Amino acid sequence: MEGGIRCSTNYVPLSPISFLERSAIVYRDRTSVVYGSVRFTWRQTLERCKRLASALVQLGISPGDVVAALAPNIPAMYELHFGVPMAGAVLCTLNTRLDSAMISVLLKHSEAKIIFVDYQLIHVAQGAIDILSKTRTNLPLLVVIQELDQPSPDVSRSRDFEYESLLARERVDFEVRRPKDEWDPISLNYTSGTTSNPKGVIYSHRGAYLNSLATILFNEMLSMPVYLWCVPMFHCNGWCLPWGVAAQGGTNVCQRNVTAKGIFDQISQHKVTHMGGAPTVLNMIINAPENDRKPLPGKVTVMTGGAPPPSQVLFKMEELGFGVIHSYGLTETYGPGTICTWKPEWDSLSRESQAKLKARQGLQHIGMEELDVKDPVTLKSVPPDAKTMGEVMFRGNTVMNGYLKDVKATKDAFNGGWLRSGDLGVKHPDGYIELKDRLKDIIISGGENISTIEVESVLYTHPAVLEAAIVGRPDDYWGETPCAFVKLKDEFNTCAEEIINFCRSHLPHYMAPRTVVFDDLPKTATGKVQKYVLRQKAKAMGSLSKKSKSKL
Amino acid sequence: MEGGIRCSTNYVPLSPISFLERSAIVYRDRTSVVYGSVRFTWRQTLERCKRLASALVQLGISPGDVVAALAPNIPAMYELHFGVPMAGAVLCTLNTRLDSAMISVLLKHSEAKIIFVDYQLIHVAQGAIDILSKTRTNLPLLVVIQELDQPSPDVSRSRDFEYESLLARERVDFEVRRPKDEWDPISLNYTSGTTSNPKGVIYSHRGAYLNSLATILFNEMLSMPVYLWCVPMFHCNGWCLPWGVAAQGGTNVCQRNVTAKGIFDQISQHKVTHMGGAPTVLNMIINAPENDRKPLPGKVTVMTGGAPPPSQVLFKMEELGFGVIHSYGLTETYGPGTICTWKPEWDSLSRESQAKLKARQGLQHIGMEELDVKDPVTLKSVPPDAKTMGEVMFRGNTVMNGYLKDVKATKDAFNGGWLRSGDLGVKHPDGYIELKDRLKDIIISGGENISTIEVESVLYTHPAVLEAAIVGRPDDYWGETPCAFVKLKDEFNTCAEEIINFCRSHLPHYMAPRTVVFDDLPKTATGKVQKYVLRQKAKAMGSLSKKSKSKL
């Protein structure tokens, strides 16, 4: 329209950097970050992030360079979420459970110029660099992050830099490098990184900005929330909440380790209003010994995701005074992509019905344009009959830019104009989706689809079961049969037959497990069960049916 | 970064249209709009807006065409905020207090192809078209909006179209025309339109999207709010809340007229959670006769703006149970541009101190990048001393695209890279800004600046004063002297001398008015006092000082 002029007066590329700059004015003297006896205000956090950005530029970081970080949820990890983008660089947070070999692969793939490492993980990072040094000369610089109030002796090593010392000598009047285009990358998140090729998911400033606002909104996070960090910031950038909490001028309660006692202590001490965690964290809370518990100072909203929360877990969480909200997404959707918006009319339903409804993945949040369940081949939407399965697909501004250096993988993921989640689900008559399984996890037994999630949710209702996972065991006759891996609660005991009979009384016969293994469950750093490990174990067991039977 | 692919899977131009499309799924059966006995759900609202967009296309509307609307806050006005953009067109809402002559000027300037008119305003619109017909042949089509439950006889007129009939014959499967670029215009808002040349402020889809989210956030609007419409939707698109309420799946309580009784009735009946209004609306509420009042069913958050709320008004609103939040902005900033964020530590201050703090304009909201108070010539920021005055300036994504067909005016407004507000203010030590006056309203008396806002705030504390405004009266000796226009409360009486003495006991002598006129105050449709009318009156009075005195 004639008369309009697009210029810096009315057009600023969207970036979470704006959240911090604004909060350093509006909420300047309020606590931004608290960690043990350490406490910063928003004004100080901006200052520290500017010093950090300035240090990165001094160390030779150019716009678009990758800066890696290997650390738990400590203040420096929070600051890296702003300081790195403020230097125009891209933050690559690494899973703290990875070993040196995998870290070396990711450092090589991302071409990280610097790696920030928590003092407890120096050996892992140094090991990775040692591996790299065998084939490369241009190695990433290692910056050590000391515990804030107790400097360790490691600093003296000549080629290491130390985080606080770097900050101390830098300028607070550093001129922030804003993205030229809001599509520019802000971070790089490697998906699980436990199998095959690493995939580096690229997040943009625009997507991070929009997913942060969406996440604030569906968490019903009013201004100045107090957020307890249980979700690792290295996982999908902490579901975008390092940026989201800054947007609302909240307080970030940081903690190095996640324990039930720590959670109750921090909630009580800091009057926490919001937190997040995978169902395993919820499990930890409800199974906490009596001595570790403290009464909640008020309502605590817990966003959970990563796996649907079992109904027993929900009941107990709500008895303790937590309000659980259920979100679902992928690394490729900046973490949260959906929210199971609670309908007021559900309040009057039975507890069991409520738990079933809450276990649904729901619908797209406000930052995501479209969510659908489609036939993966024809792309036809499934009918909203709660029965027909299809692949869950996303489209919108909070879908990743793509996979680093892997246009083919990006094209495959976007095949047909939708992000393929690899998750199988159904659509309920009210539009809400519900996951049934991973495309690769679903068991096909005698031609019937068996949703492992459904079987697991029954197992979780058994009083002796602490954790459970179902995978397919190869079978000469049925193709596959369900095999349960179960971890029992400390004080309980039971046998395979009892578990199988329990399932048969709650499920169609063919869905009940034929095999039960009592064992610890292997998990990723974010608490997801590693089913591919269990599948290997089940495969090693061989067929349950005799060869001869397959002739029938 | 190599590997990223920008495509429709991960990039969708931001538009408030997305809010409606999403709410029609998530909140499908919840009430979207209620108006007397009329009630729609979000699914129905989307359907009606699609029919409306389809009708516009049938009537020949092309992308970028302007569609005008002249109506109070009725359901059709709400639907036009989505239906017009969904046809790719630009919504131009007109002030319902304008006369045919001014409407004809705006229709001509905007080149509106269609005008939607409430049945009570047909004569105004028809009058405007009659004026246009003298010089043009290509006249805008007139579509009449009937009262929803009582069709009027006017429909039969052959060249008129009727809103509901148009919708009834259209298709619900209309394919929505999304903006190609989020910078594309969504609406056109003429500034006051009471003086000189009309200025058509262009809003973009992007700016509207971002200002809607910012406004939701600073209103602390959780999901499914109940919003009572008192702010005219024709004014800055109702402060972006037709879109914002859709984003949160709320209920829009529409009403044709704003009365104290109506406000209390609607709040009570629909359990209103949020509303907005200029201080005159707040005045109306606190001065409501006892019989018109009803107890509030819960906390009602009222966003006020347009003028700082006088402390007495704030006290009384809060006694009644309303929580008042104070925002400030311009038509050029999509309405709200700042928010006076309340600091918890202020809770313990005296009521008077709290009122003074709440009357500040505060700081930029989350959608606005920067706010500053600067010397209008040098662009140097004023010190945060609460004393030095400068011009309030904005920069960010929620600043208008520009003025329609007036690049020169756009350039002037953006001169130096900042949107010039034309408002004078100071910056407090905590960064919060406080307006002192309009650049053109400030009184200069004997070389001293007199903030008319400060004098008015003292007048408002006088028990007999209902409304007050100060302008400069020309003076041969002092240049100007303060002249007060005062409207008294019904049951009160006083004299000029008493008012002057009251001011002198609360203000420096030179700031107190020398003249007091008891009269009704002329106002714009949004409740702002038309000071230029009062200045004309004051000018007509002539100098208070004798000519001879000016020789001294």
From TrEMBL, chains A, B:
PROSITE patterns: AMP_BINDING (PS00455). It is found in: Cytoplasm, Cytosol. Coiled coil: none annotated. Its main location: cytoplasm. Gene3D superfamilies: 3.30.300.30, N-terminal domain of ligase-like. GO terms for biological process: fatty acid metabolic process. InterPro entries: AMP-bd_C, AMP-bd_C_sf, AMP-binding_CS, AMP-dep_synth/lig_dom, ANL_N_sf. Residues 20-404 form the AMP-dependent synthetase/ligase domain. Keywords: ATP-binding, Cytoplasm, Fatty acid metabolism, Ligase, Lipid metabolism, Nucleotide-binding. One of its GO terms (molecular function) is medium-chain fatty acid-CoA ligase activity. Residues 454-528 form the AMP-binding enzyme C-terminal domain. Pfam families: AMP-binding, AMP-binding_C. GO terms for cellular component: cytosol. It comes from the Eukaryota. Belongs to the ATP-dependent AMP-binding enzyme family. This is Acyl-activating enzyme 1, peroxisomal. It comes from Ziziphus jujuba var. spinosa. The lineage of its organism: Eukaryota, Viridiplantae, Streptophyta, Embryophyta, Tracheophyta.
